[in-house]
From TrEMBL:
Enzyme Commission (EC) number: 2.6.1.-
Alphabetized Pfam families for the sequence: Aminotran_1_2
Name of this protein: Aminotransferase
Aminotransferase class I/classII large domain: residues covered: 51-381
Keyword hit for rRNA-binding: no
Enzyme class: transferase
Family stated for the protein in its record: Belongs to the class-I pyridoxal-phosphate-dependent aminotransferase family.
Amino acid sequence: MAAMSDRATRAKAAVDVVTAFFARIQATADDPDALDFTFGNPHELALPGLTAAMQAQVEPRSVDWFAYKTSERLAQETVAAGLRTELALDFEPDDIAMTQGAFGALSLAFALLADAGDEVIIPVPGWFCYEPMLHAANLLPVRAALDPETFDLDVGAISRAIGPRTRLVVANSPANPTGRVYSQDTWQALADVLEQASRTHGRRIWLVSDEPYRRIRFDGIDFASPAASYPWTVIDYSYGKVLLAPGQRLGYLALSPLIPPAERDELRTALMPLGLAIGWGFPDAVMQYSVPALESVSLDMAELARKRDRLFGALVDAGVRVTRPEGTFYLWGEAPGGDAAGFCDALAARGVHVMPGTLFDQPRHFRMSLTATMETIDRALPDLAEVAAALSATASGASGPEPGRRHP
């Protein structure tokens, strides 16, 4: 007899490729010469604004300073005010549930809006944790492919994926791993599809707008949230991205203020009880107290743009097809020769570690994190160019240097 539940078995199977890759990268952690472009982890000391904000809140000011916390009112007020400015929508503090990062916000959204056996449409390629999280929640992931050329949201593909059991659609902008930022026109087209499908199937379809990279955008590109186009939207957010501190868990789930009043009030009253029910999913006290100060703290976007341009330009010069990111801190490209695993293995043999697209069900593509330092990027460029040239030559039948060997 199996020890694990069926949902645990499905969740584990859905994330095994990620955990195996993570273990492989962890094995290189002590190698001082390893050049790591895999996960979006910091490669330099924490932002001074982050440590100052936390240090200012560590000393207790009352006996209940470290008591159980739900959503602290000042944190809710700060988030609502920020959202009013960013999204030009009339958010109120009661629309906000503070959570343990975007993971916690998504878990809360799934518990709040979906029943066991409901279908949830997710983007492909998309974040590799959607599927295991849904299985763990007894929900059924349904994949909808992005446009294969531009990686735009394919509203037609979402429409075709909708069925009578569809309850949620997850959309992610700026998108991981592709770096695309979707337009207001795209959201309006999706809103029209979801409204019509909700009427056809006699059941409201909700939209979960996954926005942890909302403040990480390049070239002055505007951000539009679907919450302005489709009232039945909830937004999840994580401070871990803009602060480049994913280990400090702080995020929120926000209800669109356009949700009709009766349903909005019902959901508001459920945010705290459901936060408790999913495992006390509220952030730690110090992180919540720090929210007002952290609203204005950000990684250096100018430096991130320079790193994007440096790596993007070098890959293009090497003949690699790369999507120019409009947001996030990732580069998404097509592996030379079309074999991402081979490309990443050849680079790993030279001490350069890149994430293969197999983690995103895209065996021809790869992802590189721009959180690496500029020095790391510059050191990796010769190996990237040589491996790309060798694999391209092999694919075309020509000869070239062996891709898995370092050359002087």
